[in-house]
């Protein structure tokens, strides 16, 4: 193990945290392009300050601009993926510190990890550690709630050129993520026939009642033993209590542990047919994120990071996560992926979202050692 990395990052905790605060205070809710772009400019300013590097910027209209950096040289490359958009509306949360915890919108998911990646690369360069493969840092803006529809092609293009993909997403202390669930999302839209609920009830076709048959059927597909969950998260329908509703709609989120199960659930949902012979129903959607399943090659990535953890004096566990990650797109192409390499903390997407300050150095050291091992 290269002790120069550990020595270089000692006593850098407050510096790393200050950079995280700078990025967190530039709020970046996914669907607010102006704010996301402002945050992106702040990140590029930070990288310029810390690494002297300029980004290749991918201008966008619907979402914030994406950008990437390339460090080192060589025919092969290592890809680091980091999104900088957040789930939080502007002004909902503020940055604050309480003891060993730092709070703020997106601080755990995943601005803390992005800054740690910048510091890991900075340390390798400043210690003159040879980078015999290129390190590509790709920052995307369209992750939260929309599953990276615009940046997916960028991610897949870079992943296909890479020997491995590292994702500094959030994690619990002393863990990384070795597998993730895949995600399917659907909208069920039912059309019935409106009627007066008192005078002509028998002539109506109740779209809400029709929809409830399918909601119940889908909910019954949840199977915790398989890791399959179905959540009907939104329903809409009706215009008044005395009107048989002609329209109803439901939004459905499905999580699965394997691509085989994803295909089974895709067939099941997309084969739904109306129960009432005169009702009409459309099903739109599909697989929005493939599963991230541990391959023999990605297992080797975990074994590396586990070994580095031991040398640094602690155990690193590999865990399975139910949330989605852009690393899944790379994994589906056969590129080995290790996820959850970012900041340690709790509460992603929750009011108490926070990182643990005393883990900043050790997580950055761990990431730097892993990057070094993969580009030597």
Automatic annotation (TrEMBL):
<dbReference type="GO" id="GO:0016787">
    <property type="term" value="F:hydrolase activity"/>
</dbReference>
<dbReference type="InterPro" id="IPR011650">
    <property type="entry name" value="Peptidase_M20_dimer"/>
</dbReference>
<dbReference type="GO" id="GO:0046872">
    <property type="term" value="F:metal ion binding"/>
</dbReference>
<keyword id="KW-0378">Hydrolase</keyword>
<dbReference type="InterPro" id="IPR017150">
    <property type="entry name" value="Pept_M20_glutamate_carboxypep"/>
</dbReference>
<dbReference type="Pfam" id="PF01546">
    <property type="entry name" value="Peptidase_M20"/>
</dbReference>
<dbReference type="InterPro" id="IPR002933">
    <property type="entry name" value="Peptidase_M20"/>
</dbReference>
<keyword id="KW-0479">Metal-binding</keyword>
<dbReference type="InterPro" id="IPR050072">
    <property type="entry name" value="Peptidase_M20A"/>
</dbReference>
<feature type="domain" description="Peptidase M20 dimerisation">
    <location>
        <begin position="178"/>
        <end position="264"/>
    </location>
</feature>
<protein>
    <recommendedName>
        <fullName>Peptidase M20 dimerisation domain-containing protein</fullName>
    </recommendedName>
</protein>
<dbReference type="InterPro" id="IPR036264">
    <property type="entry name" value="Bact_exopeptidase_dim_dom"/>
</dbReference>
<dbReference type="Pfam" id="PF07687">
    <property type="entry name" value="M20_dimer"/>
</dbReference>
């Amino acid at each position: 193990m290269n002790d120069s990395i550990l020595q270089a990052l000692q006593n850098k905790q407050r510096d790393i945290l200050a950079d995280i605060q700078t990025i967190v205070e530039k709020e970046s809710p996914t669907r607010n392009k102006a704010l996301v772009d402002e945050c992106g400019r702040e990140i590029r300013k930070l990288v310029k300050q810390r690494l002297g590097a300029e980004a290749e910027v991918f201008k966008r209209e619907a979402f914030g601009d994406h950008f990437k950096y390339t460090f080192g040289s060589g025919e092969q490359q290592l890809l680091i993926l980091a999104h900088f958009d957040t789930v939080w509306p502007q002004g909902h949360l503020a940055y604050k510190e309480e003891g060993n915890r730092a709070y703020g919108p997106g601080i755990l998911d995943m601005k803390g990890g992005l800054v740690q990646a910048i510091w890991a690369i900075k340390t390798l360069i400043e210690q003159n550690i040879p980078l015999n493969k290129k390190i590509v840092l790709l920052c995307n803006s369209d992750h939260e709630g929309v599953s990276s529809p615009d940046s997916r092609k960028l991610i897949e293009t870079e992943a296909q050129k890479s020997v491995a993909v590292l994702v500094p997403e959030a994690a619990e202390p002393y863990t990384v993520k070795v597998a993730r669930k895949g995600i399917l999302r659907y909208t069920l839209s039912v059309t019935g026939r409106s009627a007066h609920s008192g005078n002509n009830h028998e002539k109506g076709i109740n779209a809400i009642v029709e929809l409830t048959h399918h909601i119940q059927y889908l909910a019954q597909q949840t199977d915790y033993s398989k890791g399959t969950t179905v959540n009907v998260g939104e329903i809409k329908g009706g215009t008044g209590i005395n009107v048989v509703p002609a329209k109803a709609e439901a939004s459905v989120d499905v999580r699965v542990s394997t691509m085989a199960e994803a295909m089974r659930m895709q067939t099941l949902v997309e084969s739904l047919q109306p129960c009432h012979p005169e009702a009409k129903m459309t099903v739109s959607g599909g697989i929005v994120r493939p599963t991230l399943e541990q391959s023999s090659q990605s297992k080797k990535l975990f074994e590396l990071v586990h070994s580095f953890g031991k040398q640094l004096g602690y155990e690193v566990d590999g865990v399975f996560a139910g949330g989605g990650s852009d690393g899944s797109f790379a994994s589906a192409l056969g590129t080995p992926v290790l996820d959850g390499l970012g900041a340690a903390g709790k509460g992603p997407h929750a009011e108490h979202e926070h990182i643990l300050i005393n883990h900043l150095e050790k997580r950055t050291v761990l990431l730097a050692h892993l990057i070094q091992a993969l580009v030597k």
